[in-house]
Sequence to fold (108 residues):
Amino acid sequence: MRKYPIFSDVYFERNATVWRDNIERDIVMTKAEVEEKVIKIISEQLGREADTISGSSDISNDLGADSLDQAELMIAFEEEFDIDIDEESSQNITTVNDVVEQIYKHMS
Fold:
């Protein structure tokens, strides 16, 4: 029997990313759900209220994240979504929407 980590075998279905986990359930996340999780992570990591964070929020300028905060956020995103964001991609991330796009791209 092959063992898979949760969220293996990713495929698309109607504008949502679907994972097949080792319990044979489909777990579907839309971009809106990804954004909601990303905002929750940023809120917890930076100690900000979630309702003050939007998709267009600049992570360093608007939210006050320094380079260490940004590195910790990337690690948190990778762990939460079981993805690997390479350094080059992470350097191009400036807004919450950029994070959501990178995560969604890696999940598909």
Observations:
- The chain has one domain: 31-107.
- The radius of gyration is 14 Å.
